[in-house]
Each structure stands twice: as structure tokens, then as C-alpha cells.
Amino acid sequence: NSQGFRFLINLAKFGTETIEIVRAATPEDVTLDRLQFDGSSGGTEMMHALIWARETLSEAMARCQQIPGYNEERAPAPLVVFLSDGANQGPDIREAADALKAMTFAGANIAVVAAGIGMEPKDFSIMERIASRSSLAANIQPEELAQFLATVGATVLAGGGPETITASRS
Length: 170
Fold this sequence. Notes:
It is a single chain. The mean pLDDT is 83. With 170 residues, the chain is of the alpha/beta class. The protein is globular, with a radius of gyration of 16 Å. The chain has a three-stranded parallel beta sheet, sandwiched between helices. It has a two-stranded antiparallel sheet with strand order 1-2. Helix 1 packs parallel to helix 2 (94-101). Strand 6 (111-117), helix 3 (124-130) and strand 7 (137-140) form a beta-alpha-beta unit. It has four helices and seven strands.
């Protein structure tokens, strides 16, 4: 039933290129065996991944707006979680990051959480640039990733808005 979903998922992995895994999919349409991340995608080129995130989020929001009786104010707010393993090796990300953060939903800007996974502290400023506010930028160790995602997910499922999410800044 296309009207039975509460939220949609966009998921991609990126390296030298952005590789789409799912676009505007319901949770039950996400096949877990497609979620294989092995670190073999080349360099870390963030700009195209940020552009992809904005385009697919726009598409998912448009799909939701087509549902009869859809009420944006009562719907869960979109959340973008941007994970990276290192420093940007591609074009400057400022314009793409700003365009993503400028997207609005129910009159407010969307939340963008940006987490470096074991990245060098000198590269942390790029996560701060991508995050919608500094408290949503984090540098986590690989073994902390599952807990980080569980914390973000629990906040979203509990109905917490973007203002209630705080990423660990370790």
C-alpha cells in the first residue's frame, strides 16, 4: 500500500562516485543485503553525494505530498545523515552543503547530521560545514557507528525534532 508509509529512505554510498542504493523507498522496500559498505569506492568526493542527497530528498518529499490527506506539519521531519571516512578529495562542498541545509519542511530547515568515521581531527571542519548546526557534527570511531546510528534512529522514532538531536563530538 503506497499510502501506508510514515517515512521514506534515500541511501547511497560514495567515494569517487555516488552509488545509489535506494531512492524514496519505504523501509520494507530496503533489502538489507544491498547494504554492503566495503571501503572500495575510491576517493572521498563529497560534493556529488551532497547534491544527490538534496535531489533525492526533494523527490521523496514530493512523493509524500502526493498522498491524499498528507499533512506536512504532522509528518516526521526529514533527516539527512551524512557519514564519511575522511577528508574531501573532490571539489569544494560549500555550495552543495548550503543548498542541502537550505531545504525546508513545515516551515523549518531540515536537519543534517554529519559524522566523520575515524577521520583525522584536522578534517573535522568539513563535517561542521556539512551539518546544519555544529552540535550535529561528530567524529566517531568505527566501533561506535552502530551506537551512533541507534541514537539518531531512536531520537527520530521517538518523535524528536531536529532540535533534539545532539551528536557526540569525540
